[in-house]
User: Fold these one by one.
Assistant:
Number 1:
Amino acid sequence: MRTLFFVLLMGCPVFAQQHFAGMITAQRTGIVQAGYNPAELANLNSGYEVQLFSISANAANNKIGFNDLFGNENFENLLFRGTDPVDLRFDGEIYGPGFALKLNNWAFAVTSKTYAKLDLVNADVNIGNAVTSAAFNALISGSTTINNPSNQRLNGTTWGEIGVTAARPIFNTGAHRLSGGATLKLLFPGSYANFGADRFTGTINNNLGDVSLTDAQARLNIAYSGNLGENFSKFGDYTSSLFGKLGGLAADFGVNYRLSDENDAEKYRVNAGLSLRNIGAMKFRAANNSDTNYVLSVQGVESLDLNQFQNVESLEEIEDLLLASGYLDRSENSRTDFKVKLPTVFSAYADLCILPKWFASAHFQQKLNADDENDQIAYQNAITLTPRFALEHYEIWSSWTRNEISGISGGIGFRAYGFYIGSGSIVTNLLSDNKQADAFLGYSFGFD
């Protein structure tokens, strides 16, 4: 179990939200912008658009600051310090090859995309310390009572998408244009793992490193499919299973409004939009599929040895150890096929021309599902403000985001023609003890 938590910080250090901070409201419209609002496809700057690649990686948490990484304290102690529950998000988003074109009043696109996510949701610090900090536990003795009414989750998911997008103007007077768009996505689930502990109560006893659990009750969900069920601690288990077999459908919808510049119809004074993304779910069907709900019960003088979980690397091992202990009972039969819901997200944004060549934008995203549901992929609420200086082929911006996990972060980004690179946190990482790290880059080109 110690290795499982250690990988949260070291196994996937390059992977979260908000992706492409500042870039999604850039002056040049391409496939990345259409990925956040399909109606933006109607604003393509050229007749044809080719997306070669685009990658965004983000890590956010509520415990470990950037400066902590250069200290002497180990990761487990940093992660489970204090009393507040732990929230971490590691999230990678990769656009593969894509193509878009304009045809009369319509615009169409075919895109490819992969995701890799690892989330720790509302984890109790006492449980974390009990199963990870062997050296620390050997120095202390005592008991800690836990009464956590929420569902604590350790969750990993990989999947791929093939999307088909269509968009067109709905209303157009020249100065004012309202467009609508939709994307249908074919989902290819790769690998999945979930450990949920709901309504956990109990007492953790530590006798100079001999750690046990007594008087405990919890509702557990243990689910896995593919590589992440067999080993949860290797980076290759995520990257080798990004695309599985076809296993679901999802849809995005959006509207976009543009107020043209009175001096140049190709430019705008206002660009705003609303979108609803990731409406759908996917079914996992790997040979090792398992999704089981259990009741954990440790009563009277009984105790569960927690030291045995310190070197565990997979959910299968955790499940086997708990079943062998005799304190775990199935509350229902295991399912071999199960569905996982995508994180449905509502987004709203507006980009305003303040002065010639100077713009300011605001972007808001709100998840519509709760992260504590066992069959739900987690997401973050966030709001981003971005001032920007833009020329025809170049622009530079500074994005400032507040999200519900890591607080406020600020960064910079740059675009030259179809190449872009940036980070939404590099400024605050250099100036303060920020709890987020992210970066993105990509390249696309258009022609007529």
Note: Confidence is low (pLDDT under 50) at residues 1-16.
Number 2:
Amino acid sequence: MTTLSSHNPSLKATILLILAFLAAFIPSSAMQALASEVIVVKNADLKPYREVLRGFKDTCGCNIREVTIQDEAGIEAVVHDSPDIIMAIGTASFKKVKAIRNSPIIYTMVVPWEVSLPLNQNISGVSMDISPETYIATIMKVFPKAMRIGLLYNPLNTTSFVNAASKAARAIGIELVTSAVSDPTEIPNAMNGLKGQIDVFWMLPDPTVVTPGLVDYLLNFSFEYNIPIFSFSRKYVEMGAIAALDIDPYDMGVEAAEIAKKISLGNSSAIRVYARKSTLSINAKVAAKMGLKIADDLLTQRNIVE
């Protein structure tokens, strides 16, 4: 009988090579074995939500059952059946399931302030925020001469993000000039305090700062005092902001699936990540009116907002 010993090195090497080759496929097979069912809880049939789900399905390699928050029987099953993983798409869905402790939960498309509070350790997710480092780096690409970036925020909503952004700015020698507000009525005075102190205004997705009336005020302020606005959504670029970074919902679904695989392979710690893929939008016409020169390599057909 042939044995694996020093007398048969070629056979031993061959078997080791085969084992190494098979090991490359273990994560995929383990996913099937360990996460046989993922229940996706949805609260609206919006295009971004559909894109998240499409990215998740394309990447997960698992069995998926979809439930809407209007389906009371389905939600009850989520609570009692202890599925391998629960994925919540949207803020209302997350609120519906976040108290569940007997299954891992992954959230996507949840407003950032809803998940900035302490969460149970079985809750992982993909933030709707892009990392502060990516934001700061992109702002500096669009406005390379800017040295002071201003922003308004409500400490109840975005403190952790603003703290991380301040650290990221300091790391590259940029000053983040922040002003805390607790009510929308405080915005005009806070903006007046930023006059002459900042080169760019960074509009955060903070519900105290971004309301329909306040967005109009911020844009008018931008034009009056020639302070460009960098935002988080293309729609504000269409309204007059100079530039924005948008999240990519499909890739958020991919990220959620990657988290699901890690959980299925035994990861017991909460995994919470920023949205990693973004799209830059630029309003070149408004930039020109403000006398700003945008680098040619940023002005691609995809980026420019007419």
Note: The two ends are 77 Å apart (CA to CA).
Number 3:
Amino acid sequence: MEQGISKNTGRMLNGKHIWLYMLLLSLPILINNLIKSFNGMIDIYFIARMEGAQPETIDSAIAALNIHESFNNLILAIGVGLSIAAMAIVAQFIGAKREDKAKSYAGQLLTISVVVGVLLTLIILGFSWFFVGLLGAQAETYDFAVNYFNIRSLELIGLIFFLVYQAVRQAQGSTITPTLLNIGGMLINIPLTWYFIEVLNMGVEGAAWSTVIGNLIFVPLMVLDLFFSRRYMRLKLQSFVPKKRTLKEIWPFAYPATISHSVTFFGFLIINAFVLTQFGDVISASFSTGNKLSNLLMNPIYAITTIGAVFIGANIGNRQPERAIQAYKQSGMLTFSLTVIAVGIAILFREEFVILLVGNNNPRLIRVSVEYTLWLLMTQPVMAIFQNYMAIFNGSGQSKLGLKAQSFRLWGLRIPLLFLLWWIFPQMNYSVVWTAMNISNIIALFHAQYLRKNIQLNIRVNLEDDTEEAYT
């Protein structure tokens, strides 16, 4: 096999059964995503069972964690944008048999991830009080949120680095190593969370510190893998030195994906702030619980479409646009079928899931969570289709189309619908949220299909040799 082409990359470019290879390669990503979802539930699980805490205190603590999750998604949008750029660029270079270029771009994207992580940490530490107040937190919720924000900010360097590292490896068909590192982090996080909350009685701060430790402890192993991997490309120190020309070429891949996720999560932040200020901690905590189940079921979708995007990018780099289209279609069939099955099961057992997560001490929290979850799951298959559009947008290196699709779904449809329904039909109460959500998800599909017609499956990375000197 040619240098720089791993066994899995060979399957992506030449294997007979695309859907089977896609499914097999997506399984470690699915496990990885499931771990992330469970990781996000660990804090709520133990916080909801804090010994001696009043129900109002628990509601405030869960609401504070919910605020952080929404804000953290917005912050991590930059890392997600960098990871999408890394996946598209490295996959196309690998498909084009240019491992030298893949190494150079991967190293510089990892350098950018560290710089971005440092800057974001400093911003949050300096202005967490402002962000928390702006998002509608008050009284005990405000105090919990500020402490949680400050502590969790310390993990951002490692988290953003991991997102880009994971994308670089996935672009080569390596999905197992990032998953194993993530599993290790969760296995550390769970007992630490129990110990800090149940034994040391550290409450919200204990939950934050255990998560930070779990997310950072294996970063050194990622660095070692990048330099000493036996199966996949190894980077050298000079790969991490920024070059002006390379950074300019990375920019068109990274900024649309970053803006796309930023505007999406900023919109969700506005919606969560609206729910918290209009309906209070219990309803906010209920929506957070429902979103946990929804995110859990989205994991197979994200896993398969992530690998689908890699298949698309690699085959475009290998000048096989017809095979790239095949990957896109088979990814769509897989995600839709699996989602329909998963949603059918989840609807039947949604109440058990809610009680498992938040306990049975607050009947109103349980009732609203179960009600919201039903409506949330109804359009989950629609989101599977939508996410597959994002796979071909990102895999082809045309994340600008993804930006248009995401922006229209949230800012052109959901948020205007939310406030319009709230103004015209105040008697709908908090049901305006899922009504606007479901309508926007369905209409957004037609817009995404329109954008899909503009796709161009040509190589978008620069294959010319770069003789430019690095920055000094």
Note: The chain has a mean pLDDT of 84.
